[in-house]
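Purpose: get a first structural picture of the assembly so the mutagenesis plan has something to point at.
Setup: two entries, given in the order below. No constraints added.
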Amino acid sequence: MAKLLFEWDYSSYPGAKTYPHLFKPIQLGQLTIPNRIKYAATEDNLNDHNGFVTDADVAYLRERAKGVVGGICTMQGVYMDEKRMGQGYVGQAAAWDDKYIPGLKRLADAIHEERAVAGCQLMHCGRVGAVEVEHCQGPSSVPQRLRIFRPVLEMSKADIKQCIKEHIEASERLLKAGFDVLEISGIVGYLLSNFVSSYTNRRTDEYGGDIRGRMRFVVELIQEVKKTCGDVPVGIRLCAEELLDDVKGNTHEESMITYEMAEEAGIDFMSVTAGWQESIVPVISRDVPMGSWIHLAKRAKEHIKIPVQMAYRLFTPDIPNKAIGDGELDFWEMCRPMIADPLMPKKVLEGREEDIRHCVACNVCLARLFRDAPMTCYINPVCAHESDPTFANPEKTQDQKIIMIIGGGPAGLECAYNAARRGHEVHVYEKGKELGGTILEASKAPYGDEELMTTINYQKAQCEKAGVVFHMETEVTEELIQDELPDSVILANGPVYSKGNGTGFDRDNVINVLDVLSGKAELGDKVVVWGNRKPGIGVALYLAKKGKKVTIVGKDKSAGFDVNPSFKWRYMIYLRQNGIMAYNDCDIESIEDNSVMVKTYDGYHFPVECDNVVVTEREANTNLKEIVQREGIELFVIGDALVPRNLSSAVHDGYRIGIRI
Amino acid sequence: MSFSAEKEITKLWKNLHAAQDEIGKTYYRWREAALQLAGSDVKPLDVSLKTAEIMGMEIGKSLLPRLNWLKGEEVWLMNLAKNIAGNWINHGAIVDVENGENPFEVLIKWKRCPWPTFAKEYGVDMEEDVLCCDRILQTILKDVNEFFNTDYTIETLKAIPRGEGECLRRLSKNNK
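Result (structure tokens, whole complex):
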């Protein structure tokens, strides 16, 4: 008889009718899960650097536990060795000693208090581990492709036995802490995946050789952990596609053999993944269309009978709902969608999809983790601040103000609904016909940028619910400010575009980026884009897709300075693929009818033929600032109007002022 | 046959940068080799300072035929400063030279310099980079002073590796 931890009845919720397959129970081993939703294990770097669980991590996970509405909430993978070779993240929780049990128990208890199933992952980071020590471990000492990782020491057979022992002992501790489901991590470059892959396992003993030999360690480990866990379900995450063909990684046929062997070894469920950190193929960034990897889950289900789970760009409920209904998937896993909005599945259930703050798949969360920084989210300012009530749940204001927000872009909108929720009377003045600021144009760029509009749509819905008053097609003037005399003015009116220090910037062939992306401007065949940050890259790719020959000239030392490294490498590839030359550390000295003269930082000059120059260089917007100050009105400047940056900075600026004003 | 100034110039420019990059890396590879062969008893800074001295002597000697006292001491001093700057510019630095507030005083400003970046890349202490530049400059001046029978000194007022935004050095006549 399968065990059910918490009773959930979804029948009265609209989401259960719209997405019936997501809210059906399923059995994992001897445990019944009320729905098909799982917050997948995600490192957050929120724990202390000795592996002890912190208040911040408990609060972070509790919020996600609320979100899964009875499903599985998995805490991050724990490292299990005292030598810390398995530790891949500075803030990773540990389970190599009983002293960690009380902290782990706090996490399990927090999940249970939200009536969710508590999952925990066992994660030895293998060749991407040893973040605090000099060498990491692997089956063979194959050098690293990425420089941020440590040199690899080949594991002896004694090391392998010790590693299995550590997994068993850690499992015992996790069970004592109260976890209901365990999961073994064998993906993206972590230890188990290193053993499985022909890229990193060059051993000639019984733990190497063909795929069956390379799986031996994993099979032994599963069998031992299963023995320890008894009725508690144990799952595993394994790659269905390593995407390492360029370094002689596994074929997908070999990957399916690993799935079959894991099932034979007794595993209770399979979490399907794709790619390694060392893969050169994009897997989860915005340029990969949603649902692109469902075929891997389908393939897995053709090879194994145990429940199949998967995350990987399943950002909207319709995709997993259909896949589950079609028998291609059993469980909807999420990491980033629930980093961006911890209550995402709860909102789906309650029929409040307009309230979901959708992840824009920028991967800044990963970029931060790899650089030893605490988790953060591009578009969710509260992420990793859940333990700070003054920041996460600010109180109503005692001093109600009339607030004039100038600009209906992401900074202004974020500020508007947060201030309105706290009791202020908020008026947003937008000179255009639509809300969204420069995101309206930025979202026209290729490779998934249309997803940026999800942030604006969310903000609009929140503003409407919070009672924000919109004044559309209204340009704010000195007279308007004097007439309205608000208590506070928030300048969120975006950047101004640079006029250039060289000659010819006033010519007719010089066009603003917004006019290009909105389709207002007609351009010749050869275009120079001035500015090598994200707006420059976006418009360059947009124009290249229209068949233009595009050259970028920008002042930053490298293109995409404002794009996080976990996404930037994609843009560099796309620039090359589209034949776009980027001259970085350069400026335009003069513009003629059919060419520009480029000046390099070190004083050299060369001409570039072009019909048009597209201006993307931006500066802070000081319009109206003096007028507001002269009137003695409280003033805040946010978003690109303060310093031109990106969508994330606009949202975070807006939030911080919205909760404090 | 068509000629593209853009292609020709940018190809040369990129080759120049690649060569400059190789200069920095080669220096630190040799530093590492020297340290490994010298053994653990030797202090890395001592090895680097010795190298700086050798570099300074070579540069100093190369300057002697290029400096002409007949053009007057102020022109001579400005030429000395520009020649010093030129060595770093060849490596990829952006260096300006300007007259100081006092007679026979010149300020040399390194607005950008690749050497601290190389030091960081090879895990070398930032202060070592400052001290090595100082040693190169002092050694250059030693030869120049002896040859021209002058008494000029150079002092470091700011340094990029110390997080001060630029390297600023004052080259001036010793009035003591």
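The longest helix of chain A spans residues 157-177.
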